UniProtKB/TrEMBL annotation:
EC number: 6.3.4.19
Species, as recorded: Alloalcanivorax marinus
GO-annotated molecular function: ATP binding; tRNA(Ile)-lysidine synthase activity
Record: residues binding ATP: S30, G31, G32, L33, D34, S35
Enzyme class label: ligase
Protein name listed in UniProt: tRNA(Ile)-lysidine synthase
UniProt xrefs under NCBIfam families: lysidine_TilS_C, lysidine_TilS_N
Length: 442
């Protein structure tokens, strides 16, 4: 028989001190039972010098200001730094989800460079797994709550996932640590509250180890999800995928591997995990005859097919170049909406490599970066050539033709990105630049 877990104050304190990530720490402190216990554990673990206690007042209850004051006093009594903030909660999409988003947005804006600690525990894990089972989640969803994660780049640490709620209550009562009770936690119309008050107690009455076993199942699903992510990364590399495009040869994979890769690719790009219905739309797009107008749209994202690739585009990626810019010599290039110019010497991909090349004479004065209006011609190889035909021959996607600037010297078109320069520049020493999407890094 496995030894009974030790959830004593000394054991948990030592465990937190040993496992704490380096650098500044911020505790998301609601004043409730769970975060109150975690507050005292962190203070006892010797982490106080790098810990900030943060409370977000959602303004959803008449007593919320008093709760915020309680949290401030609890942190101050322990000699801990405190940050309090009131937010406005968007109610579209559900009050609970809106409060969570507002809370994390506020904390992410203030806790730059820190790890955010939350007090999720074993019972939360069991509840989350059951909720996701009932919603038909896949393997990644059934991994439920992970000890380490991130929210839009903000590192998260949840050190109490193995600890049951009853153990936390015992510690709070033993220590005489006051905590707040949010009346909304007793509202049986909320799914999580119903599971907590009705379903889980019934399961535990019949199967006492149910919460622990559900948490164990979530951990196994997390391991399976990691394995699927590794497989997807391998498939992406083998296909030559990029963050914004996926070769249509993905259709050669088995259906299960293809769907696994699509999910992983979209999540990695920040577009979120697609549900079953959206995956079916994407599969239909992959199977459709070549048609540049075919697309799948959701939120601020689009998927389009072009020249053997499936492109993932955000709203910003699709924004056209709105106006002419001046490109002075000897200075950094101006911003270009969804794109920017980078010197070839600072870009390992090179202006003549995977990114579209832009050139300028070393002896040139100010140049003009002009949005394409249609009908422009570049005088090259002794004749005028339509820019639209040059871009089509170079495989430039239609939406990018409205984003990339044409380079003029005075009134003369002298460079077309991704194509080349006019005859007038052929005999002049040139500097190589490249267009880089703002979503990419130098």
């Amino acid at each position: 028989m496995a030894p009974r877990p030790d959830f004593s104050l000394d054991t948990l304190t030592h465990d937190l001190a040993r496992r704490a990530p380096p650098g500044p720490l911020w505790l998301a402190f609601s004043g409730g039972l769970d975060s109150t216990v975690l507050l005292h554990l962190l203070a006892r673990a010797g982490l106080d010098a790098r810990l900030t206690v943060a409370h977000v007042d959602h303004g959803l209850h008449p007593d919320s200001a008093a709760w915020a004051d309680h949290c401030r006093r609890q942190a101050t009594a322990l000699g801990l730094a405190f940050h309090g903030e009131r937010v406005v909660v968007a109610r579209a999409g559900g009050l609970e989800a809106g409060a969570r988003t507002a809370r994390y947005q506020a904390l992410a804006a203030r806790a730059g460079g820190a790890t955010l600690i939350t007090a999720h525990h074993r019972d939360d894990q069991a509840e989350t797994l059951l909720l996701r089972l009932l919603r038909g989640a896949g393997v990644a969803g059934l991994a439920a709550i992970r000890e380490h994660g991130d929210w839009r780049g903000l590192p998260l640490w949840r050190p109490l996932l193995a600890v049951p709620r009853e153990a936390l209550r015992a510690l709070a009562e033993q220590g005489g640590w006051p905590w707040l009770e949010d009346p909304s936690n007793r509202d049986p119309t909320l799914d999580r509250n119903y599971l907590r008050a009705t379903v889980l107690p019934a399961l535990a009455a019949r199967w006492p180890a149910a919460p622990a076993q559900l948490a164990r199942a979530a951990a196994r699903q997390a391991e399976a999800a990691d394995l699927l992510a590794e497989r997807a990364a391998e498939d992406a590399a083998a296909l030559g995928a990029a963050p914004d495009r996926l070769p249509l040869t993905v259709t050669a994979l088995s259906a299960a591997r293809r769907r696994n890769l699509l999910r992983w690719w979209l999540v990695e790009a920040g577009a979120g995990a697609p549900g079953q219905a959206r995956l079916a739309e994407i599969e239909a797009l992959l199977a459709a005859p070549a048609d540049r107008a075919a697309r799948v749209e959701w939120g601020g994202w689009q998927l389009r097919r072009f020249a053997g690739q499936l492109y993932l585009l955000s709203r910003a990626d699709l924004a056209p170049l709105d106006r002419e810019r001046v490109w002075p010599p000897g200075a950094g290039a101006p911003t270009l909406g969804a794109w920017r110019l980078v010197p070839d010497g600072k870009d390992t991909a090179g202006a003549t490599g995977a990114r579209p090349a832009v050139w300028r004479p070393k002896d040139a004065g100010p140049l003009r970066l002009v949005p394409a209006a249609g009908g422009e011609r570049l005088y090259r190889n002794g004749c005028h050539q339509r820019v639209s035909e040059l871009w089509r021959a170079a495989g430039v996607p239609p939406w990018r033709r409205a984003q990339w600037p044409l380079v003029y010297e005075g009134e003369t078109l002298c460079c077309v990105p991704g194509v080349g320069v006019a005859d007038a520049w052929r005999d002049r020493p040139l500097e190589a630049w490249a267009l880089m999407a703002n979503r990419d890094r130098d």
